[in-house]
Give the backbone structure.
Amino acid sequence: MASTTVGGRRSLLQRMEPDISRHLLRDEGEDIVDEVEKHWIVYVRPFGEILLAAVLLGMVAVLPANLGWVPFLLAVALLVHAVWLALKQFLDRFVVTNMRVFRIHGVFNRKMATVPLARILDITVIKPLPGRLLRYGHFVFESAAQEQGLREIRYVGRPDERDLAIQRVIQRSGVRGRVPGQVPPV
């Protein structure tokens, strides 16, 4: 995600973002085709928790002093949980390059899983009813590996467009043979 800086200084969120370019094989000609952030729907739950925390904080003012600490502690716990959920989703990136697909995720401990295009056997796109209405879906990758770190990518915005982009990259890479009757590129 391209970030702008004010006065040459980066915000805390900008510094926390995964550095995708650091993981590219530039000397091998690897380029980013698509960097996928989570669909906005993943922030609905954290937002709801923040609203509930605000209601609990409002209760502190109307309760007797000896009971006000209960909703206050619940509100703080909800706020911490909401921030954790939002950060977890914000820092989860799925990247498609001309050579592979990979995912970087994690708040404190970063995990990275990679599958070369040649090892992708099948991609299933799952679009539940809410996803069809709000334009998100889930990807399930089947690869030649027995156990893989990159199997399911959830809450992908515009899943049909992204699936076509991945299929195009796989086809252009020459990993899979030409489709019979297809005219070779000039």
The domain at 15-38+94-173 is CATH 2.30.29 (PH-domain like). The chain has two domains: 15-38+94-173, 44-86. The longest helix spans residues 69-90. DSSP finds five helices and seven strands in the chain.
